[in-house]
Structures are given as C-alpha cells and as structure tokens.
Amino acid sequence: MNAIDKVQSSDINLGLVLETLAASRDLPLVFRYEGRPVKPGYHVTEVKAGQFSALDCGANPEAWAEIFVQLWDIEKGNRTYMLAGKFAAIIRKVSEHVQLDGSAKLTFEVSDGVQPMRLYCASTPVISDGALYVELVPRAASCKPRDRWLAEQAQVAACCGSAAAAKCCG
To answer: HSE-up of 7 (CA within 13 Å, CB side)?
Structure first.
C-alpha cells in the first residue's frame, strides 16, 4: 500500500466523529497534524457544507457532499483544549443554520494564521492519556477511476482469499 492509499483510507465522515464525541463529551479534544498536536487555544473559525458535482479524469460524472471544518491553530492565553462536547455543540449550532449531511466527507482546513491553510482528512478519534485524539493527515490529490479500480481489486482479493472464494471467484 502506498502513501496515497493510506491517506484515502483515513477519511471519516461527520456522523462518525459526532458519534465518537457523544461518548466522550468531557474529554479534551486534541487534533494532531504534521507530527504534533494543535495548540490548546485552537479555535474553530468556520464550518461549511458543500455539494459538489464534477467530471473526473475518466469522464465519469461525480457528485458528493463535503463538510469543511476550519481550525485556527493558535496559542491563546492559559486556555486548555476544547472539550469534545463543546466541539459537538459548535457543530449542532451550525446545523441550525446550515444543512449538514452526517455521511458527508469531512475535511479539515488548518492554519496557524501565518502559514497558508492546508487540507487534511481525519482518522477515527481515539482515546489516549485522558484525551480524545483525532489524527489529521494531509489530503492528497487522487484519481477517482484508479481509486475505484483499487477498491474493486481489494474486494476481489478479500473474497478470493476466503472460504467464499468459490462463490465470487469461480
């Protein structure tokens, strides 16, 4: 598996994040990117939802929903990390004004206010050392026809390597 394939497998959706946050409301929520955690004073500056229509490089029409969460990675006084419940409350507040699809792809936009904003996908949140950690991985460009082909190959390999091989590979 190459680096691009690893990034693709890291994508999670908003629904999964909110489900995990609900079970860990009182834990500090720490996002990690580029090998380090965001600063304790990080700020959610914007949450936006988009519906996209496109034509991929194989001339296949594509459509998807995506939610962008913008994080400002700053140090701010003696602040501690935001609790998971507060982050969930921010998302709920946004959902009162903006239609948020729980199955939408989730993208994080992160900047420290000096460096340009960068796009990240998120891994499943994990509890460690009394906090809820979300690893952010740079979102790489990809080729959707190639991604579909790889997914089909993985499905065939999983099926052909199992007891059900005679059913799906025969």
So the answer is: 17
Max Cα-Cα span within the chain: 65
In three-state secondary structure terms, 114 is coil
Rg of the chain's alpha carbons, rounded to an integer? 18
Query: Going residue by residue through the chain (170 aa), what tens digit of pLDDT does each one get?
Result: 333 333 334 678 898 889 989 999 999 999 999 999 999 999 999 999 999 999 999 999 999 999 999 999 998 878 899 999 999 999 999 999 999 999 998 999 999 989 999 999 999 899 999 999 999 999 988 898 898 899 899 888 888 766 655 555 55
What does the DSSP 8-state code read for residue 147? H
pTM, two decimals, is: 0.81
Contact, 69 vs 44, CB < 8 A? yes
Residue boundaries of the structural domains of the chain? 3-139, 141-170
The whole-angstrom separation of Cα 27 and Cα 85 is: 8
Cβ-based neighbours of 165, under 8 Å, separated by 6 or more = 159
Encode 123-159: b = buried (16+ Cβ within 10 Å), e = exposed.
bebeeeeebbbbbbbebeeeeeeeeeebeeeeeeeee
